[in-house]
Design goal:
9 helices, two-stranded antiparallel sheet, mainly alpha
Length: about 200
């Protein structure tokens, strides 16, 4: 919609809510009344899609809240219903891993190693596991490092890595540790402690 309005020399501006978008469109329609019939179907379809997304989010949140494992995993800062549901659906049985650190490798967040004789090279992450799990862990790590106001040990550890090695490496390292932490919480049937 922004691109189409730009073709007519109009700017929608920052409109993050449906009410704000409606106000901006009314102001723009006063400048160009001929555009209202052109944009009415597009605005109606956007509103229907937003309603469907809200309903889908409510269903995801209720499903995660009803599952005792997911509700336990969501006590970790930065882990929401999508990450918790993705983690439990992908791992299925936490006892199949001998160590919690293996979950990070299973999700493709461990570095590749190329070894031969005297050579031992650590490369980029392997990306061998489920891409949706890897993506949701990475997003949870990003939220942990960027948005969480209350400090905790994993966040501070990630911030130290970010200072020395960069933000992307820090997010990957935190995502790998987060996978191990979620696995431990699931196995031990405990909730996250801030201390």
């Amino acid at each position: 919609m922004r691109g189409l309005l730009k073709l007519f020399g109009l700017r929608l501006g920052a409109a993050h809510t449906p009410g704000k978008r409606r106000e901006r469109l009314i102001a723009l329609y006063q400048q160009r009344p001929d555009l209202e019939p052109l944009f009415a179907p597009l605005v109606a379809s956007i509103e229907v899609i937003e309603d469907q997304l809200r309903a889908s989010n409510r269903r995801l949140e209720s499903r995660a809240a009803d599952d005792p494992v997911c509700s336990r995993l969501m006590t970790v800062p930065g882990v929401g219903p999508i990450t918790a549901l993705t983690f439990t659906a992908t791992i299925e049985d936490p006892r199949r891993f001998a160590r919690s650190e293996d979950v990070g490798a299973y999700s493709g967040l461990a570095p590749q190693r190329s070894q031969s004789g005297e050579r031992d090279v650590r490369g980029n992450i392997s990306k061998a596991g489920d891409p949706m799990l890897r993506r949701s862990l990475y997003e949870a790590a990003n939220i942990m490092l960027c948005r969480m106001q209350r400090p905790f040990a994993l966040q501070q550890w990630g911030q130290r890595i970010a200072e020395s090695k960069g933000n992307k490496r820090a997010r990957i390292a935190v995502a790998r540790k987060l996978a191990a932490l979620l696995h431990l919480l699931w196995l031990n049937e405990t909730e996250f402690r801030w201390a």
